[in-house]
Write a structure and sequence with these properties.
The protein has two domains: about 10-55 and about 155-320, Rossmann fold (3-Layer(aba) Sandwich), CATH 3.40.50; about 55-145, Rossmann fold (3-Layer(aba) Sandwich), CATH 3.40.50.1100. About 45% of the residues lie in helices and about 15% in strands. The protein has helices at about 10-20, 30-35, 55-65, 70-75, 80-95, 110-115, 130-140, 155-170, 185-195, 210-220, 240-250, 260-275, 285-290, 310-320, and strands spanning about 25-30, 40-45, 75-80, 100-105, 120-125, 145, 175-180, 200-205, 255-260, 300-305. The strands form two sheets. The chain has a six-stranded mixed beta sheet with strand order 1-2-10-7-8-9, sandwiched between helices. Strand 7, helix 9 and strand 8 form a beta-alpha-beta unit. Helix 3 (about 55-65) packs parallel to helix 5 (about 80-95) and helix 12 crosses helix 13.
């Protein structure tokens, strides 16, 4: 598989491939959010995507490119949850077998949802074992495709279709705030924005305890960290990928960080003001916008809410009782 950086032509091709399979997710606005920031803020709700997150875009795009012989060999992937669900669902739609390597402490709802798609789940200890090594071994044994969660040109191009949709619907923005774990969503968004809204500044947002992307961007070299302790399980990555780092290094305005407390505030804000449920990772961009407040005055702001896969028990544990809007 080519390791060349994907281009906007790849994003457009991914959009065509996804047509009729992926949802065109809604944009939401909030008077309370606009008042707090003195800006016009648009929320791209990827929680409404198939499998509850943006990850379906990249997974389906990558698997749909395989020929019949490659599909018969199946796919192996590794993920803390959302990529696993997306790969499992895309594989089922395309008639493929799927094996997912997931951390033993992954959210129960994400693990069960992956199994419900008919995939085989292999668990590992994220603090002691290498998911990449386990997945590579399984793929070699099975003769299957190994599909990483972010550092793959077809994954990046597929994820870029979310920002493409937003920009085509509402036009140019002054800034966009995008969650970043391994950097697939941010990288794809950077490609789309460079083509459709070149004046738009893109900010990646990650947990403050897992600021490998921020450190990588500012040092100019790929930084790898220990598994971060954060409620944002989808951003417990240890480093960006080679492709995603290069795209972020070239095009991102900056990488910002937020605390778990700020993530909970963002989750509570969405639930109270808009009746939306988002997982902690999905709220990274919004948390940064809420923290910036009136510094964004007068601007048109885009925020990608990347996913909504959080089970009821964890939601109550994080937020406590929340009144309906």
């Amino acid at each position: 598989m080519s390791r060349e950086l994907p281009t906007y032509a790849d994003v457009e091709a991914a959009a065509a491939r996804l047509a009729g399979h992926a949802e065109i997710t809604p944009l939401r606005v909030s008077p309370a959010l606009d008042a707090r920031t003195r800006a016009q803020v648009f929320l791209k709700c990827e929680s409404a995507q198939r499998t509850g997150s943006f990850k379906f875009r990249g997974a389906f795009n990558a698997l749909a490119r395989l020929d019949a012989t490659e599909r018969r060999c199946g796919v192996v992937a590794f993920s803390s949850g959302n990529h696993a669900q997306a790969v499992a669902h895309a594989a089922r739609l395309l008639g493929m077998s799927a094996t997912l390597v997931m951390p033993a402490d992954a959210p129960v709802a994400k693990m069960q949802a992956t199994r419900d798609q008919g995939a085989r789940v292999v668990t590992y200890d994220r603090y002691r074992e290498s998911r990449e090594a386990i997945a590579a071994s399984l793929a070699a044994q099975q003769g299957a495709m190994l599909l990483p969660p972010f550092d793959h040109p077809d994954i990046i191009a597929g994820q870029g279709t979310a920002a493409r949709e937003m920009l085509k619907e509402i036009g140019s923005l002054d800034a966009m705030f995008v969650p970043v774990g391994g950097g697939g969503l941010l990288s794809g968004s950077l490609i789309a924005a460079a083509a459709l809204a070149p004046a738009c500044r893109l900010f990646g947002v990650e947990p403050e305890t897992g600021n490998d992307a921020q450190r990588s961007l500012r040092s100019g070299a790929l930084v790898r960290i220990e598994v971060p302790q954060t409620i944002a399980d989808g951003a417990q990555t240890q480093s960006l990928g080679e492709l995603t780092f290069e795209l972020i290094r070239r095009h991102a305005a900056d990488i910002l960080t937020v605390s778990d407390v700020e993530l909970i505030e963002a989750m509570r804000f969405l639930r109270r003001e808009l009746g939306l449920v988002a997982e902690p990772t999905g709220c990274l961009g919004l948390a940064a916008v809420l923290a910036a407040g009136a510094k964004l005055e007068g601007q048109r702001i885009g925020v990608i809410l990347s996913g909504g896969n959080v089970d009821a028990a964890r939601l109550v544990a994080l937020l406590g009782p929340v009144e309906s809007p």
